[in-house]
Structures are given as C-alpha cells and as structure tokens.
C-alpha cells in the first residue's frame, strides 16, 4: 500500500512535467526549406536546460539560427553530469546566464543580443515550473514567460513560440490556469507574431516504469489499464515542430494541439510495449483510480485544518496525478499528429541503453545505464544524441 501511495504521488509529477532520446530527426523537404530560411537569423531559447528546451537549442542550431540558450545556472552545465546531459545539445549555441524571473536582467540580455545581431527573429519559450504548484506556476509559466515576451516586444523581436500543454483545454489545475493566463497575454499583444503549441504528452512521462519492471516489480496501471489514451511525442520531433513555427506562416497566430505518430495508446498497451522492449513476461498490477481521491482528500483535509502550505501543495500534486490518470492526452486528427518516432522505438532504445534520471518525474534510474548494467555515467561522447 505504501508503495502504491508513493507511486500515486510520483506519477503526479511525472505526468505533467525525463530523458533525452538518441533519436534521429528525419529531414523533410519542409525542414530543408526552413533551414535555408533560418540561416543567419537569431533565436533565443528560454527554458533551455529543460527536457524540450535542450532539444530546441539543438534544433535551432541545426536549422542555422544563431542560437542563444538562456540558462539560470551555467555551472550546472560544467559538472560531469551536466556535460553528459547538455553538451550534445548545446554545441554551436551561445550560453547566456540570465534570470528570467528578473525582468530588468532579461531586458538587458535581449537588448545586448539585439545590439549584436540587429534583430531577434524568434523567441521560443520552453519555461515551466519544476513543481507545478501554484506559486511556482505563476512565477514561471506566467510571469517569467511574460517577462520574455515583454523583453522581446521592447526590442522589436519577431515571432514568439510558446510550448504550452494539451491539458490546458480542460483546466482544473493551478499550473494550467497560469499557462492560460500567459496564453491570453500573448494573444492580446500585437507587437510580435506568435504560435502556441499544446503537446499531448512527452515520452519521459510514459517511461517512468522502465526501471520498476526491470527490478522485477509489476507495471502499475490505473483502473483496468484502459481508462485513458494518449499519443506522446518525441522531444526531437517536437523541437522540430516548434522551430518550424517561426518560418511556417500557416502556424502563426494559432493554437495548435499536437501529438505524436502513434495510434491511441492505453496505459495497458504502454505496459505491454515496455515488457516487449525488455523481453520480459507481462506482469501488471492495477490500482483503483479512487486511490487518488483518498490521498488528495486526506492531504487537503490536513491542509485545511493546519493551514500548511506544504500539505496544500502535496494535495495539488495529488490532483495533478489524478488528472493524468483520468484524462486522455490524445490527438487523432492527422493535422494534429506529427513526427516519426514511435513510443515502441523509444522503449526499445531505453530498454537497451537506459535513460537519464530526472528528479522531476518518475524516472527512477539514477543515471543512464550502460548495456553491461554498469550504472556509472556514460561519457558524453558515448551518449551523443543524434544525427
Ligand atoms: N511532461 C509532459 O508530458 C508534457 C506534456 C505536454 C506539455 N508539457 C509542458 O511542456 C512544458 C515544458 O516541459 P519540460 O518537461 O521540457 O520542462 P522542464 O524539463 O521541467 O524544464 C523547465 C525549464 O524551465 C526552467 N525553470 C524552471 N523554474 C525556473 C526558475 N525558477 N527560474 C528559471 N528557470 C526556471 C528550468 O531551468 P532549470 O534547469 O534551471 O531548472 C528548465 O530550463 C511544460 O509547460 C509542461 O507543462 C509537458
């Protein structure tokens, strides 16, 4: 039971908010065109150290942008772990130390870049609060993202691409409200053109049980394992889509829901795919969805009588978990499906190579795991990420 409750809470974070994939982005004709259009232009990536942000940095460089990666703590990139996690993504980009929560700092950075480059053509925001709790969400998903927009408007920047989330269309969580508030501010202004991309789910959010099943424990699915369906998208595919929004005018002034190439996948199907990738016999445990209500209601009750912010936040984390246990993250319209990398391909790769530990999700692996089972950090060159 204790394991189940821990799992419920950890799923909460996983679902909304994991490791880079060593995937190859297929270069389409459109991409080649966009690459030519982007040559010599300037792009700023905010939230550059995030799961999608770092893929965007790599994609912007690949498309020929002079790319500036905004980073709050550049020292994080210098450690051995930082080298492994970021070096393959940041090659060719300028790393700029910047506190996005400090409007003046951001304004200065944008003014300096504009002075050097004459114009900022694209700002791509992949900023997101790490916890999803109300205070962080309004600080980052709303205010810091707004700071980026205002700094861009002040220097006459061109196009703003917002990485949002599919789930905001049915918003009963605090972080979704914060995201919607920024989406509204972006749409209201007319100085910069914009694209809002709302992805369904990332591969990291449906990969957290790899190490669990490898340890011999069952795959835990909610309800009968068929309560929800999703079509997650690979981070490299999503990064290509986000950067292409800058040059593809048909994506301007639009809110776009976006999922990956898979057909609808239930949790049970995801489990079966993971067992297939690991070559293990399927072994499932089914957790009732009401377990979330027990955890949430208990935490909320305690929060209300004690006034504890910690307990209030824990209850919100529980609500985040429940949200993804009961809501589909699915696009079926062909115009809302994108990319070439399927979830099975991703599972096959991480089952062989391991995946990077992500403290903000249910990625249980401590480090990328080598084929021989040695859990020491893999050298950066061994984990070279693509192409
Ligand atoms: N997970 C999913 O399945 C899923 C699906 C659809 C949409 N989304 C949405 O996609 C977005 C991005 O997700 P992600 O997983 O790529 O994000 P992430 O890995 O959590 O990265 C968040 C980025 O924001 C930065 N950041 C957070 N707090 C900050 C602070 N206080 N000051 C400065 N920078 C801060 C982080 O910097 P540090 O590295 O310095 O912390 C990092 O660069 C989120 O809005 C999420 O809702 C997620």
Essential attributes:
single chain; 7-stranded parallel beta sheet; 46% helix; Rossmann fold; alpha/beta; two-stranded parallel sheet; 12% strand; disordered C terminus; 387 residues; binds NADP nicotinamide-adenine-dinucleotide phosphate
Reported for the largest beta sheet, the result is: 7 strands, parallel
Output the radius of gyration: 20 Å
Structural class category: alpha/beta
What overall geometry do the principal axes of the alpha carbons give? Answer: globular
CATH 4th-level superfamily of one domain: NAD(P)-binding Rossmann-like Domain
Strand neighbour order, sheet with most strands: 3-2-1-4-5-6-9
CATH fold descriptor of one domain: Rossmann fold
Distance between the termini: 44 Å
**CATH level 1 class label of one domain:** Alpha Beta
Order of helices and strands, N to C?
Answer: HHEHEHHEHEHEHEHEEHEEHEHHH
Summarize the structure in short:
This protein is α/β, with parallel strands linked by helices and 387 residues long.
Describe this structure in words.
- The structure is a single chain.
- The protein is of the alpha/beta class and about 375 residues long.
- It has a domain at about 20-205 and about 230-260 and about 330-345: 3-Layer(aba) Sandwich (Rossmann fold).
- Helix content is about 45%, strand content about 10%.
- The protein contains 14 helices and eleven strands.
- The protein has helices at about 1-15, 30-40, 50-60, 75-80, 80-90, 105-115, 135-155, 175-190, 210-215, 235-245, 265-280, 290-305, 310-325, 345-355; strands at about 40-45, 65-70, 95, 120-125, 160-165, 195-200, 220, 230, 255-260, 265, 285.
- The strands form three sheets. Strands 3-2-1-4-5-6-9 form a seven-stranded parallel sheet, sandwiched between helices. Strands 7-11 form a two-stranded parallel sheet.
- Helix 6 (about 105-115) runs parallel beside helix 7 (about 135-155).
- Residues about 10-30 and about 365-385 have low confidence and may be disordered.
- Bound molecules: NADP nicotinamide-adenine-dinucleotide phosphate.
- NADP nicotinamide-adenine-dinucleotide phosphate binds next to helix 3.
């Amino acid at each position: 039971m204790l394991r189940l409750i821990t799992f419920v809470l950890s799923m909460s974070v996983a679902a909304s908010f994991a490791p880079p994939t060593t995937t190859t982005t297929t270069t389409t004709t459109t991409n080649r065109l966009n690459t030519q259009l982007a040559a010599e232009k300037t792009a700023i990536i905010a939230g550059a150290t995030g799961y999608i942000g770092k893929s965007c940095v790599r994609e912007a460089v690949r498309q020929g942008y002079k790319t500036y990666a905004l980073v709050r703590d550049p020292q994080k990139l210098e450690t051995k772990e930082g080298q492994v996690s970021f070096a393959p993504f940041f090659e060719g980009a300028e790393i700029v130390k910047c506190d996005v929560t400090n409007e003046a700092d951001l304004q200065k950075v944008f003014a300096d870049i504009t002075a050097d480059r004459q114009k900022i053509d694209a700002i791509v925001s992949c900023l997101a609060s790490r916890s999803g709790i109300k205070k962080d969400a309004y600080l980052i998903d709303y205010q810091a993202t707004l700071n980026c927009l205002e700094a861009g408007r002040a220097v006459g920047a061109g196009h703003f691409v917002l990485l949002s989330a599919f789930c905001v269309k049915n918003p009963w969580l605090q972080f979704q409200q914060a995201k919607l508030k920024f989406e509204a501010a972006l749409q209201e202004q007319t100085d910069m053109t914009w694209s809002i991309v709302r992805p369904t789910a990332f591969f990291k959010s449906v990969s957290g049980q790899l190490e669990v099943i490898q340890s011999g424990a069952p795959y835990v699915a909610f309800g009968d394992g068929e309560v929800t369906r999703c079509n997650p998208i690979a981070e490299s595919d999503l990064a290509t889509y986000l950067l292409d929004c800058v040059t593809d005018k048909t994506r301007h002034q639009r809110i776009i829901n976006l999922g990956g190439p898979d057909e609808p996948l239930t949790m049970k199907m995801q489990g079966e795919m993971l067992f297939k990738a690991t070559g293990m016999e399927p072994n499932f445990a089914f957790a009732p969805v009401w377990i979330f209500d027990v955890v949430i209601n208990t935490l909320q009750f305690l929060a209300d009588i004690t006034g504890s912010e910690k307990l209030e936040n824990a209850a919100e984390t529980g609500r985040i978990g429940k949200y993804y246990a009961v809501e589909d993250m699915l696009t079926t319209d062909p115009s809302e499906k994108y990319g070439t990398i399927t979830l099975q391909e991703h599972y096959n790769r991480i089952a062989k190579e391991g995946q990077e530990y992500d403290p903000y999700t249910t990625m249980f692996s401590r480090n990328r795991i080598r084929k021989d089972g040695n859990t020491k950090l893999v050298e950066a060159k061994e984990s070279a990420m693509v192409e």
